Amino acid sequence: VTRILTPGRDGSGRHDTLLPPRPSPNSRGDGDASSVASAVYVLERLQEKFVPEEDAIQYFTIIYATLNTRTGEMRIASGGHPSPLLQRNGQPPEVITDHDGPAIGLLPIDIDIGFNEAKLQLQPGDTVLLYSDGVIEAFNANEELFGIDRLQQSLQNQGGAGLSEVTQGILADIAQWRDGSSQNDDETFLAIRRLE
């Protein structure tokens, strides 16, 4: 992520960045929290900077999250990306939807989009699953989608397994669902669990 957000310089020699200014070493308060760009801030800056050509439909999806590993607070905003799943310490997984926004570059820049940010308080044992659209859009031989309901059930079926086993188990469920049908898109996961 650091490389993606490394500032370049615009024509005047100033930094062209998505990040807010870092606090000075003499500032008071929680320097760690104030130096991390909020999810909404980053999506709004991307929407301003990504201006597709007029004759082409160009856009991208993104999910941006910050996690305070000391407190377990997670903040998430989405630009057209599939909604994450939250599984509270063994409970059935739920879809986090209160952060959803449009894909970056899909709507004209002059439309006020107003991205939203979800705030989650992760407790010990809670798992968050971020995934690409290729996961829920995996087709079987009957051209049926794997879908969000099957993904939730697959996550639930993994029980208290370690995160590596959870993602491998979900991939196995998708492969079984496809039953020999070709993979048409990436199937990417990021699983996060608060341990203490």
Detailed description of the structure:
- Residues 1-11 and 22-34 have low confidence and may be disordered.
- The chain has a 4-stranded antiparallel β-sheet. The chain has a 3-stranded antiparallel β-sheet with strand order 3-4-7, with helices on one face. A two-stranded antiparallel ribbon has the order 1-2.
- The longest helix has 16 residues, at 163-178.
- The protein is α+β, with helices and mostly antiparallel strands.
- Helices cover 23% and strands 18% of the residues.
Number of helices: 5
Overall pLDDT level:
80
The description of the largest β-sheet is:
4 strands, antiparallel
Unreliable runs, pLDDT <50, ≥5 residues? 1-11, 22-34
Approximate strand percentage: 15-25%
| Helix-strand string | EEHHEEEEEEHHHE
Shape: flat
> What's the β-strand tally?
9
Fraction of helical residues: 10-25%
Distance from N terminus to C terminus (CA atoms, Å) equals 25 Å
Strand arrangement within the widest β-sheet reads 6-5-8-9
**Cα Rg:** 19 Å
Assign the structural class, choosing from mainly alpha, mainly beta, alpha/beta, alpha+beta, or little secondary structure: alpha+beta
Summarize the structure.
With 196 residues, this protein is α+β, with helices and mostly antiparallel strands. It contains 5 helices and 9 strands; from the N terminus they run ββααββββββαααβ.
Give the tags.
196 residues, alpha+beta, 4-stranded antiparallel β-sheet, 3-stranded antiparallel β-sheet, 9 strands, disordered N terminus
